[in-house]
Amino acid sequence: MRPETRPFISLDLGTANVLAYVSGQGVVYNEPSLMAYNNKTNSLIALGKAAYDMVGKTHGDIRMVTPLVDGVIADMEAAQDLLKHIFSRMKMMNIWKNAIVLLACPSGVTELEREALKNVAKEMGAELVIIEEEAKMAALGAGINIELPQGHLIIDIGGGTTNLAIISSGDIVVSRSIKVAGNHFDDDIRKYIRSEYNIAIGQKTAEDVKKFIGSLVKYHNERSMQIYGRDIVSGLPKEAKISSEEIRNVLLNAFSKITDLVIELLENTPPELAGDIMRNGITVCGGGALIRNIDKYFFDIFQLPTKIASDPLNCVIEGTKIFEKTIKKNIENGLYNFQEKGLLSTLGKKRK
What we know:
Elements: E1 8-13, E2 17-22, E3 26-32, E4 35-38, E5 43-47, H1 49-52, E6 62-65, E7 68-69, E8 72-73, H2 76-89, E9 100-105, H3 111-123, E10 128-133, H4 134-141, E11 152-157, E12 162-168, E13 171-178, H5 182-197, E14 199-200, H6 203-213, E15 224-231, E16 237-243, H7 244-267, H8 271-280, E17 282-285, H9 294-302, E18 306-308, H10 315-332, E19 336-337, E20 342-343
Helix pairs in contact: 4-10, 5-6, 5-7
């Protein structure tokens, strides 16, 4: 089989969601990256949205598993199970044979963690596995022409990690990653409500609070939200009314760590590219981009034009679709060694 005619699969294996794209068929899977197992039989009983609906409502014989945490494989067997069930459910297992697979990962993962990601795809039958940084794919998916010699600042706020990158001339010039993202925001909200109201709430409730009343800048007609949980003193059900201002203060505390990292990134940016950033500004991607007034927040701090990608949740997978053309061009130019299943160039290697 000629390399350029092999099936192409790209995966955005996120902490919160898994997205899969197959060339010629589009995005074939987009669901939460959760799995529910029966402890007695060790069999999978729910996957994706069905498993997410079970969060916080299971008994002792069911365990919830997230195969990837902070962009790193936490459970190799579960990660393989996840991919097998996704593609077998769609009767597409055969497509893995001799496939070219593109995986998106955070910039902070180690070479060992990258190899673990590659091994999952190779175990599925992939011929060649390519790993690219999420921020680069997100930039492509956000509609940025990364091939131009112009600097762009990307902030990709996912579920487990926030990835920052300065991109120019087709690749990442400097990047940073921090484990402060959607799940971290939810945990901070849970801790605040527990300490302030003596109420224990679940992860899903915290996420709902973030979505419905979360903001980073004060907005018109701010709302409050009634939340329900368990009184940590009496153990009885309890409710409380939470204001937008309270949640904003919680989120601002978490976002201060991200802004500190942006400052560090900009301090390590070449001067010529810094000038480009002044003109091109910041592009925000990922689920965190949906937090109300995030663009105003970054503009107020950095005085840089800030825009939110048109489809922030799908930027990475959309970017992998665009990058398929680049991969096929590289194959034609002999940049990949199919016999050794490795790269002949430095494409996809970790940057210092």
